[in-house]
Amino acid sequence: xxxxxxxxxxxxxxxxxxxxxxxxxxxxxxxxxxxxxxxxxxxxxxxxxxxxxxxxxxxxxxxxxxxxxxxxxxxxxxxxxxxxxxxxxxxxxxxxxxxxxxxxxxxxxxxxxxxxxxxxxxxxxxxxxxxxxxxxxxxxxxxxxxxxxxxxxxxxxxxxxxxxxxxxxxxxxxxxxxxxxxxxxxxxxxxxxxxxxxxxxxxxxxxxxxxxxxxxxxxxxxxxxxxxxxxxxxxxxxxxxxxxxxxxxxxxxxxxxxxxxxxxxxxxxxxxxxxxxxxxxxxxxxxxxxxxxxxxxxxxxxxxxxxxxxxxxxxxxxxxxxxxxxxxxxxxxxxxxxxxxxxxxxxxxxxxxxxxxxxxxxxxxxxxxxxxxxxxxxxxxxxxxxxxxxxxxxxxxxxxxxxxxxxxxxxxxxxxxxxxxxxxxxxxxxxxxxxxxxxxxxxxxxxxxxxxxxxxxxxxxxxxxxxxxxxxxxxxxxxxxxxxxxxxxxxxxxxxxxxxxxxxxxxxxxxxxxxxxxxxxxxxxxxxxxxxxxxxxxxxxxxxxxxxxxxxxxxxxxxxxxxxxxxxxxxxxxxxxxxxxxxxxxxxxxxxxxxxxxxxxxxxxxxxxxxxxxxxxxxxxxxxxxxxxxxxxxxxxxxxxxxxxxxxxxxxxxxxxxxxxxxxxxxxxxxxxxxxxxxxxxxxxxxxxxxxxxxxxxxxxxxxxxxxxxxxxxxxxxxxxxxxxxxxxxxxxxxxxx
Length: 738
Description:
mainly beta; 16-stranded antiparallel sheet; signal; transmembrane; membrane; BamA/TamA family outer membrane protein
C-alpha cells in the first residue's frame, strides 16, 4: 500500500501546471480556490504524456492512461473535474546484465566487480538503477587510475524485443519459435541490459594517470600569492609552501592520501578532502589536479590549498530550561543558567580540538531557590587513535580519541549536597564509505561507533535529615542517594539508511561497571556499583508530501549484581545485595519525550502502587524499560511564515524495578517484570499535538490522556480510569519527541 500511495503522489506531480488547482487554507480548512486555470484538453494530453514517461522510467511495460472529465455549476462558476485512470501494466524485470567495453582493461575491471552490480536478475528494471550502475562503474574505473573517464564515454544498451524476428535469413521454423518466445515475453516482460563504451575520440580518456608533484599550502589565504613572503620545505615527498608555524607539517602530510608516484585513485582524492574538512581546523579545502604535458607518462600534479579557521571561539549564553535529566548529574535546570564555552580548533598545532565549558545554574522551586549547581568540563579531541599498539585505520572515517574531564557541584537545599567527578578515555569512528568513495553506488548502512574502555564516575553525597526521613518511607532511595563509584566501559553504535521516502535509524549501547575492579572487596562492599546495562532504539519514518508516519521502539535492561556493607555507627557489617541501578543510570518514563500522558518520572514501576499513596511528589526509576511510540504527523497551515503542524500519537510502555514493602520487607511482585504480567503492567496514553515550526527550532504543545493506567489495574485492567476532558496531561517540548 505505501508503494501505491507513493506512485500516486509521483503521478500527481507529473500533471501539467495548467491542470493543477491551488487552494488557500486557513487553520487547516479550505477557504478559497486561487486563480483556477481554464480547461484545455491539450493540457490533459500533455499530462498523460508526462505520466507515461514516468511509468516508462520506472520500468512499467505498456501502461495505459485514460481520462474523463465533467463540468458542474457552483454558484455562477463552471467547474471542470478531471479523472485519470492509470493502469501501469506489468513491471519489466531484468533478464541478463552484461559488459562489452572496447578497452580490455575496462572490461576486466567491470567483470571483476560484476558481483557488486546494482542490477540483479529478475529484479524490477528502472532507469534510475541503470544510471546508478553507470555511476558505480565509473567509480570503479576512476579508483583504478582512469581520471578522465566520464559518463559520455559509457552507455547502457537495453533490448526489449526479439531482434532476430526482423532477420530475413531466418527460416520459418525458427521464426515460429521466436514468435512463441515473444508471446511469453509479453506475459512476463523482461529486459536485457549491456553496458558498453562509445568509440574512443580522445585517447587520453582511456589512459591511467599517476600522481606527480603535490604542493601543499597549509595556511593559504585568499589574497594574491607572494612567493617572497613564504618558506618552502619538502616533507614526506610533498612540497610545502607556508608563511607561519600554525601547523606541524608532518602532521599535515600524514593526512594526504595521494602519494607522489602512485596511481590516481578517486577514493583517496575525496578522502583527503573530507579528512581535512572534518578536522575542523580549516574552513575550506581546495585540492586542484592539473594534467602535466611535459611527460610521456600520464601525470597529475596537485595543489592542495588549506584555508585555516579562526583558532579559538568563545561563546557565552544565558538559558532558561526545564530539568529533564537526573538530580545528581550535570543536567539542564528549570530556572536560570549561565554557560561559557571556549573552543580551541588547533591545539598543539595538530588540529587537536579542546573544549572548556563552565556552567552555573539556579533551579527555582516552592521555596524560590531550590537547587544551586556549578560545573566545569574539559574535552580533548585527538584526530587519530592513541593506543598502546598501532591499529590500522585506513578503512575508518574520522577516527578520534576523546578525553573527557568533568567536575560538578549540586546543592539541593534541605535535601543533600553532592560533588561529582567524571573522567573518561574513549574512541570514536565511522565505518562505511562515503557516497563518493563507494565502489558500489547505492544505499549502505553507515555505522558510527564509540568505545570507552575507561570511564570513571564518582559522586559524594551529604544527606540532610529530610532526605534520611524520606529514605525511611521509600527504602529504594537508600541505594539511590548514596556515594556512587562507577568504573565502567561503554560500547555504542548507531546507523541508519534512507530509501525513497523511508528513513530507518538504529542505536545500541552496552555499559558494564565493576566486572574487574569489583573483585577488590573494599570496592565491592563500598560504593562501587556493579552492573551491566543494555539498551537499544529503533526509529522508522515514512514521509509523504503533506504528512508522515513516525515509529519508535525502545528497550533497556540493567542487570545489577553488586553488594553493599550496611555497617554504620559501629554496628557489625551486614552484606546485602544491591537491587537497583544507581539513580543517575536508571531508566525512567514520562515527560515530553517519553510517555506523554504522565509527568516525567511519574510512571511505574510496573503495576505496583508503592508510590501512589505518598504525599510527596516522588520520582520513580527502574532497571528495565519497554516503550513503543507512534505518531501520524500532518500539516495544518502557515501563519506569518510560521508552519503550523499537528500530530496524533499513541505511547505504550513502562519501567520495572525491584521494590520492597516497608513493613514486611518482602519484594513487591507487581513492580518487577514478568512476561505473563506484561499486558497488566503496560501503560497506554494517547493525545494530540500542536507544533510551531520556525525552521531552526520547533515548539511542541502536547495534550495526552491516560487510556490505560497500570496503577489502577485492579479495575478493568486500568482502562479509562477517571477519563475526563480536562483530566489530561500537558507537555511542553522543543523539537520532535523522537
